[in-house]
Hints:
By secondary structure, the protein is α/β, with parallel strands linked by helices. The chain has helices spanning 160-172, 202-211, 233-251, 305-326, 345-348, 351-368, 386-389, 416-425, 443-449, 474-481; strands spanning 5-6, 21-24, 36-39, 47-50, 56-62, 66-76, 83-89, 92-99, 102-116, 119-127, 133-141, 177-178, 180-182, 217-221, 255-259, 331-334, 374-380, 398-403, 431-437, 486-487, 514-519, 522-527, 534-539, 544-547, 556-561, 568-575, 580-588. The chain folds into 3 domains: 21-141, Jelly Rolls; 161-491, Glycosidases (TIM Barrel); 508-588, Immunoglobulin-like. It has a 7-stranded parallel β-sheet. Strands 2, 3, 4, 6, 9 and 11 form a 6-stranded antiparallel β-sheet that branches. The protein is globular, with a radius of gyration of 25 Å.
Amino acid sequence: MKQAWVTFILAGYLGIAPAADRYEAENAIVDENSVQKVADDEASGGLYVNMKEGGLSFKVNAATAGFYALWANYSQPSDTNGKIQNLGVNGVSCGQISFPKVDTFTSIKASAKLKLNAGNNTIEITKSWGWVNIDYVELTPYVATPFTISPSLVTPNASANAKKMYGFLVENFQKQVVSGVMTNRVMQNDGHYTPNTVEDQEELEWIKNASGKIPALVGLDFMHATGKNSESEWHKGYTDATLALAEDVFKRGGFPAYCWHWKDPSGAAEVFYSPSASGQTTTDFDLTRAYADPPACSEFNTASAEYKAIVANLDMIAGYLKQLADKRIPVLWRPLHEASGKWFWWGYKGPNACRSLYRFMFDRFIKQHGLTNLIWVWTTDEAGDALSWYPGDEYVDIIGRDYYYYPREANHGSLAASFEKLKDMYGGRKIIALSENGSIPYPDEMKSDGAGWSYFMPWYGEYTMDGWAHDNTAADWKKILNSDYTITLDEMPGWDNYTVSVQMKRPRRPNEYLSTRCGNGFLELTLTGEGARTSELFTIKGTRIATLNNEPLPAGTHRFDLRRIPAGMYLLKVENTQAPGTVVGIVVR
């Protein structure tokens, strides 16, 4: 046995599951003409399926009704940006599966949570971006894991009302969902740029007529606040109208939420799309030219024209946000959204440049402009490289997911698979929200599936007001907003009346109550506090291979013989009241 060593690969609350039930892709083909069955000695059963433009439908059998985790053995050698496929169970959409580029067959957790009936079920993997090779899928039981939400806002000395707004979201997270909608027109067509109110703004008025209710969250955009033509009377009128509407929403007890479709900072063109956005007018603004060290993009070139343009734009937006701060109005602030899609200039040059820009904005808004009224929202996807774009826990309060069905359709499933994937990816440390969406998940589906999105916000126009795809009809809005699970504007307590009732404490990290060390074929496990009830060793796929202690362990250091364990990566699961299912990874060589 070679020397073993330990590293904290996984830290948090991860589920451990028994051995998996396997289902071969060649037995799940829906249409032989749309996919390609390929013989391969390395594949399970000697075959895999190149999905091409087709789909797979797996007939699976569940011993009991409940939630399961889905694993997929796949390869995807063609696209460095990864591929995405749609995932459904028994005819209901559950979200998407992201397939990063890999040349050889690799097993990934395709979905952390699927709801199955007892007995026969159908799991569908269908074309979104297509062209993925699937060998097989496996099912393991789902193990519920808790959230450990960050106890305070990332903004130092956050304003009292920002704390209230965040506290309300924390208090209601996974209990109810806050209703929202994005707006488009925010001022009246009267020649005076008169701001709309909550009562007469187009999307809000349509929803109220349909349901009798008004959403509690209203989405706004600083699209016209910077860039070419931003000094025109109309553009200024639009931006001022968003500020007035934000104030109206807050005074009525709601949530103003801003994004920023940031137009070319140089002012050369009134556009924000990058060259990768097909069918759009694009900008050639190159973010990397603002840095002194591309592609690392860790240091700005303060003499560059790009840097100076970015700073000027940031300072302009900070000025508008300061107007709200001076009126004690907090904002859900979601900048640089959908960056990893690369269809906007701020994401086009990759994660390093974008991540540094976000952090620079954060520091400048707080240190230079003293903004304490922002709740920072980061928009993620579920791709394999999502965390490489992430600015970091110290810069983000809420994780947002922009989810639109592709091909576009009306589907009100809970998106539980996506919710659980984001929970896993970000360690359960952040509130998770549908920061943009097409169809709204039905409240009963969210509740029964445990998909506790903090809030939803369908896009404006036909996405909200029953367009050609019928994403959200009048009947849908009536059903959704009149559910007891949904919080509408009339049900908000009013910010002057609201007191944060949840006591948020910083969650303890695993290395505060346990540590591990390996050498000469032995594992040393050091426990603080009460010790441990059980300590077990599992494979990465969740198969238990050893129970290290049959009796409770006291606090202190304990030694276990690993010399009979084959080389490889394993998961050590420790159970006690301080560590309810804490898992660390150990690598045995």
